[in-house]
From TrEMBL:
Keywords: DNA-binding, Transcription, Transcription regulation. Residues 20-87 form the HTH gntR-type domain. SMART domains: FCD, HTH_GNTR. PANTHER family: TRANSCRIPTIONAL REGULATOR, GNTR FAMILY, TRANSCRIPTIONAL REGULATORY PROTEIN. This is GntR family transcriptional regulator. It comes from Pseudomonas violetae.
């Protein structure tokens, strides 16, 4: 009889966890494990199992799972509870349409408040992306580049939503970038966007961002459609 793998088996924790830190520690530990693939998509995370694993009551576990659900990393499914969400939630076109709205607004609000250090940081992320070959790192650097440009937007809730979208994309790229033949992402879009931001040209910056995200959704949609067609053609 095959032994069922424990989805928490790859996680290491420093116990005991102080009660006042339990929710934050559980949330961050699970988030990291989901993002780097140690807990794969479709894995059910049961509250009592988590409480036993972390050595806490179910209350901080429940709160942590709610936070991860709000970040689109978990989905609540009837009779299964909290399940690790797919890499791209729902329709990729709809997902990116929402990202364009949120990120465009964040960029508009941020540009007038950016300082030289923010722009230099964004430029460093582009340089790092030019030479990076590790797929896990490419997605992270892409997220950091964009957040460097959005970071001064005063609406904190908007920034949280924006970063959630970027983390979803980071997670998708981490597991699909090699198969998409995009190991060396072109940084032309990023450099053009940064130049417009440096010029404080808000409208040009937003237009370039929209073009950049629309190109991304075209590539990802084409990949997902091809991937789905291949799966359907395989014998069951």
């Amino acid at each position: 009889m095959t032994q069922k793998l424990n989805p928490l088996g790859s996680i290491k924790i420093n116990a005991p966890i102080p009660a006042h830190m339990a929710r934050a520690v559980i949330e961050e530990t699970l988030r990291s494990a989901i993002l780097d693939g140690r807990i794969p998509c479709g894995t059910a995370l049961r509250q009592q199992d988590l409480a036993d694993f972390f050595g806490v009551s179910r209350m901080p576990v429940r709160e942590a799972l709610r936070q991860l659900e709000a970040q689109s990393l978990l989905s609540v499914i009837a009779h299964k509870g909290a399940v690790v969400a797919p890499l791209i939630q729902g329709d990729a076109v709809e997902t990116y349409a929402l990202r364009i709205l949120l990120e465009s607004q964040a960029l508009r609000l941020s540009i007038p408040l950016l300082i030289a250090d923010d722009l230099e940081q964004a430029a460093r992320h582009i340089d790092d992306l030019e030479t990076e070959r590790e797929f896990t790192e490419i997605g992270r650097l892409n997220r950091l580049f964009h957040m460097a440009l959005y970071s001064k937007a005063p609406n904190r809730r908007l920034l949280r939503l924006v970063e959630d979208g970027l983390k979803e994309e980071e997670r998708f790229l981490r597991f699909n970038l090699e198969a998409m033949n995009l190991g060396e992402l072109s940084q032309e879009d990023h450099r053009a966007l940064l130049r417009a931001v440096e010029d404080r040209d808000v409208e040009s910056s937003v237009r370039l961002l929209e073009q950049h995200l629309n190109r991304a959704v075209e590539v990802i949609t084409c990949y997902l459609d091809t991937h789905e067609a291949l799966n359907k053609s395989r014998p069951t």
